[in-house]
Design goal:
By secondary structure, this protein is of the alpha/beta class. It has eight helices and eight strands. α3 links the parallel β2 and β3. The N and C termini lie far apart (45 Å).
Length: 232
């Protein structure tokens, strides 16, 4: 097979490090995944049927251990939340929190977020999309793996409804600068809620993570960006 004929391997924005599930996480998978999990099939999701209502839908990409997502869902039971995460222990932890808090307004997908956005999220279906502390891929040669790039932003413009928003947060300043540049370049699609070139103070709905609290004590910065989807 020639170089030209070799299949193209997509650049992934994550490395799959599964880790070992605790007994509690495995139990949560066994008992709760059939109710709260969505098995990826590459088809558009009917969210009204999935949640049994037409409440506003918010998506978090890469929810880690799910604490922020669970907190938002608990505080806003009149809103629906979809979380995407590839790492098993994080998914298991969120399932445990769903049970502990008695949440009914969360569903989970365990798959590559880019493929989920492209194939499963209908146009104008999201009121908001969260990207909190994505992998910064801090080495320059790895910057191409960063999830927030022009192609990703174009997909955001499709799935977020007019008047909805995209909220990103990072503790890497150079990634924050890149995020600002990429999002500001699509001014016809998104408007910076804080004004051109400005970052947003952390809104109350985004909980402080333990890692972030430690960073604050050490004097580390965190940058939030909230961009509003303009009318078509």
């Amino acid at each position: 097979m020639s170089e030209q004929e070799k299949p193209h391997r997509p650049i992934r924005s994550f490395v799959l490090r599964q880790g070992r599930l605790t007994a509690g996480q495995q139990r949560a998978f066994d008992s709760l995944w059939p109710r709260f999990g969505i098995d990826y099939d590459g088809q558009p999701i009917d969210f009204s049927a999935l949640f049994g209502n037409d409440n506003p839908l918010f998506l978090e990409i890469g929810f880690g251990n799910g604490e922020s997502l669970a907190s938002m869902a608990h505080a806003h039971p009149q809103q629906n939340y979809l979380g995407i995460e590839v790492h098993g222990p994080g998914v298991g932890h969120l399932l445990i929190r769903i049970e502990e808090l008695g949440l009914e307004n969360i569903r989970i997908l365990r798959h590559d977020a880019i493929e989920v956005l492209r194939h499963c999220i209908p146009t104008n279906s999201l009121q908001g999309l969260f990207l909190f502390f994505p992998d910064p891929w801090h080495k320059k040669r790895h910057h191409k793996r960063r999830i927030l790039n022009p192609a990703f932003v174009a997909e955001l413009g499709r799935v977020i409804r007019p008047g909805g928003f995209f909220h990103a947060a990072t503790d890497w300043e150079d990634y924050a600068l890149q995020m600002m540049a990429v999002l500001s370049a699509v001014d016809s699609t998104f408007q910076n809620s804080a004004g051109a070139g400005h970052y947003t103070p952390r809104p109350a709905y985004r909980p402080l993570t333990k890692f972030e609290q430690r960073g604050h004590r050490l004097g580390h910065g965190v940058w939030d960006l909230i961009f509003i989807r303009r009318p078509d």
